[in-house]
Specification:
Largest sheet of chain A: 6 strands, mixed
Structural class of chain B: mainly alpha
CATH superfamily of the largest domain in chain A: P-loop containing nucleotide triphosphate hydrolases
Number of strands of chain B: 2
Order of helices and strands of chain B: HHEEHHHHHHHHHH
CATH class of the largest domain in chain A: Alpha Beta
Helix content of chain B: over 70%
Number of helices of chain B: 12
Radius of gyration of chain B: 26 Å
Shape of chain A: elongated
CATH architecture of the largest domain in chain A: 3-Layer(aba) Sandwich
Structural class of chain A: alpha+beta
Oligomer: heterodimer
Number of domains of chain A: 2
Strand order of the largest sheet of chain A: 6-7-8-3-9-10
Strand content of chain B: under 5%
Shape of chain B: extended
Distance between the termini of chain B: 71 Å
Helix content of chain A: 10-25%
Strand content of chain A: 35-45%
Distance between the termini of chain A: 31 Å
Number of strands of chain A: 20
CATH topology of the largest domain in chain A: Rossmann fold
């Protein structure tokens, strides 16, 4: 559907996008995730045609598009601030693209009505932008783009301005709309939760480059770099040295002792300094020293973050400055660690939860 | 230990009242400008209106209200002919000026990225000399032995100076356009500058090329500035009472013309 081949963009001496290679399939919900200044919006604007590429190619259905002006690309976009035309009614906003195409008036009216129905705003046709709420403007912007049946819809932080509740509702609506229409969506966001919830695949960007492209679960479980790991959720990251223990590879972690490295230590030399990572879900916590061969480390429960059924427990371990974060789940009606701040605990971890990260 | 006071000092009754009533704060802020406008506009308008009902008795003014001036004026075909002619020239000059100034305002708003303030100041440059000097400067250019005529004769294009260069409606329009350019550029610039650039991008995204984008988005959104420019341009004698009558008639005429223009603007803006 879209291929980005070595796409670069520089503004003067500043390299905003650096050698991006991406393949996005038809019908996919694809997200560009990154902090501000990571180049994600510039990349989206290059796909839309608002920024010229400095070098590289953008292909849509195999056709090079990098030199086509935006009004001739089979792409539509939902802008960050929605860009609803203030001098037109909702109805005229939605019909904007159709009027140029010379669609018969009656057909236009029918299509606009269908769109108003789809975005759940029937009866709002005669309003103007200033009479709409943020969520309503967002829907109008969506309808205005979708009525042209684009091959590709670009969304530039479309939910950023909405409050949390409305944002979650709009996320669900966006996702089901995309499934229903089968249009390829490319979403730009700095909100990792949004990217992970909505997308089929996510590209994480930093410093103008794509660091990793994967499915949401792939990104979470197989984060390649420290930055990706931190971006898609909480991650415990430890400096460690790789050692060989018989046939197995192990890592020495200050304060936590020896961790087995299964599989993830491929290509690592003996004595190499690496970053070892553990998701909070990969760790366990108990009040007494667990029986059995599992490696356990004593610590002190420092703080507790209650998040409904799930909670994050921060454990202070001797020899480590930063606490280790553990995620636990509680059954209904239970609050197992309530009031335990300061008490001694034991940390354990599953060997297959340990992974190695690139230090970038 | 003595307790710290909650506030440094008690608020005065006035400040408490103003804190509570936001609308009154607004009115208070508005008051000085409002008073000035009241005196400068209403008083002046009122006195003009009153004076237009007086009459001249030899060298003294008779203050008995009368509509004599109005009937005299309406009875005289020359007055209506003059008003008509003024309207035509003013309309023409206004249209020409706004049309000439729009591209300048557009350029500064959309294509000047650095030293914008400097550009704006330079655009108001003709305004720095007195009105009279500006008019005389044009006389130097367009006059009987002016720059243009001398050049044309020197080049052998005409045999004798063109009087029509200076004493014509075209010359009046040209001088008016030049003198009042700043009044047309500034409001147009402000309304162009205010346009959300992403609206223009959205129009491109929805398939409109540059010309369509201009007529469907940029121009309608800049209309408030264009309307303001029109009014500023359209707006600028020793029998005082008769002069006052003429002024009242002019104000009413201009007001009506303005309303008509606003109505047209509404229709276009749709």
């Amino acid at each position: 559907m879209i291929s980005l081949r070595s796409v670069c963009k520089s503004f003067g001496r500043m390299q905003a996008v650096n050698d991006v290679l991406l393949e996005i399939a038809a019908g996919e919900f694809f997200s560009l995730l990154g902090a501000s200044g990571s180049g994600k919006t510039t990349l989206l604007r290059m796909i839309a045609g608002f920024e010229a590429v400095t070098s590289g190619q953008i292909l849509i259905d195999g056709q090079p598009m990098q030199d086509t002006p935006p009004h001739l690309r089979p792409i539509n976009m939902v802008f960050q601030n929605y860009a609803i035309f203030p001098h037109l009614t909702v109805r005229d906003n939605i019909a904007y693209g159709l009027r140029r195409l010379g669609t018969p008036k009656a057909e236009q009216a029918r299509m606009v009505d269908a769109m108003l129905e789809l975005i759940a705003l029937p009866g709002y046709g005669d309003r103007r932008a200033h009479q709409l709420s943020g969520g309503q403007m967002q829907r109008v912007a969506l309808a205005r783009a979708l009525i042209l049946k684009p091959k590709l819809l670009l969304l530039d932080e479309p939910l950023g301005a909405l409050d949390k509740h409305l944002r979650e509702q709009m996320q669900m609506e966006l996702r089901s709309l995309q499934r229903q229409l089968g249009i390829t969506f490319v979403l730009v966001t700095h909100d990792q939760e949004e990217a992970l919830t909505l997308s089929d695949r996510v590209a994480v960007m930093a410093n103008g480059q794509v660091t990793q492209v994967d499915t949401p679960s792939g990104l979470y479980d197989r984060s390649r770099t420290r930055q990706v790991a931190a971006f898609v959720g909480t991650m415990n990251v430890f400096d460690a040295t790789v050692r060989t223990d018989g046939s197995a590879r192990i890592a020495d972690v200050a304060g936590l002792g020896v961790m087995a490295l299964n599989g993830c230590s491929q290509g690592r030399a003996n004595g190499e300094r690496v970053l070892v990572a553990l998701r909070p879900e990969g760790l366990g916590l108990s009040r007494t020293k667990p029986a059995g061969p599992a490696h356990a480390v004593a610590g002190q429960l420092q703080a507790r973050q209650y998040l409904g059924r799930r909670q994050l427990l921060h454990v202070k371990v001797a020899g480590r400055a930063a606490p280790v974060t553990v995620a636990t789940a509680a059954a209904r009606g239970e609050d197992p660690w309530s009031g335990d701040e300061g008490s001694p605990v034991w940390l354990t971890w599953a060997p297959d939860a340990v992974s190695i990260l690139d230090p970038t | 230990m003595t307790a710290m006071p909650l506030t440094q000092r008690p608020a005065s009754a006035l400040s408490r009242f103003l804190h509570r009533h936001e609308a009154w704060r607004g009115w208070l802020l508005l008051a000085p400008a409002f008073c000035l406008m009241l005196v400068a506009i209403l008083f002046q308008l009122g006195s003009t209106l009153a004076m237009s009902t007086w009459s001249l008795d030899g060298y003294s003014v008779d203050r008995t209200p009368t509509l004599g001036n109005y009937s005299a004026m309406l009875g005289q075909p020359m007055f209506s002919a003059l008003i008509g002619r003024s309207l035509v020239v003013a309309t023409f000059a206004t249209v020409v000026t706004v049309a000439l100034c729009y591209p300048m305002a557009y350029f500064v708003a959309f294509h000047v990225h650095r030293h914008k303030a400097l550009w704006l100041i330079l655009l108001t440059l003709p305004f720095w000399t007195s009105y009279l000097l500006r008019v005389f400067a044009w006389k130097v250019v367009l006059g009987y032995e002016g720059v243009l005529n001398t050049a044309l004769i020197g080049l052998g294009i005409v045999q004798e100076p063109l009087a029509a260069l200076l004493y014509s409606q075209t010359a009046v329009t040209l001088v008016l356009a030049h003198s009042w350019a700043a009044f047309a550029i500034l409001p147009t610039y402000v309304s162009l500058e205010k346009i959300d650039r992403s609206c223009i991008e959205a129009a491109a995204d929805l398939g409109d090329g540059p010309m369509r984008r201009f007529w469907r988005i940029t121009f309608p959104l800049s209309l408030p500035g264009v309307v303001a420019a029109f009014f500023m341009m359209f707006g600028p004698m020793d029998n005082w009472p008769a002069g006052a009558t003429l002024s009242v008639v002019m104000i009413v005429t201009i007001g009506l013309a303005g309303l008509a223009f606003l109505a047209v603007g509404r229709l276009v803006g749709r």
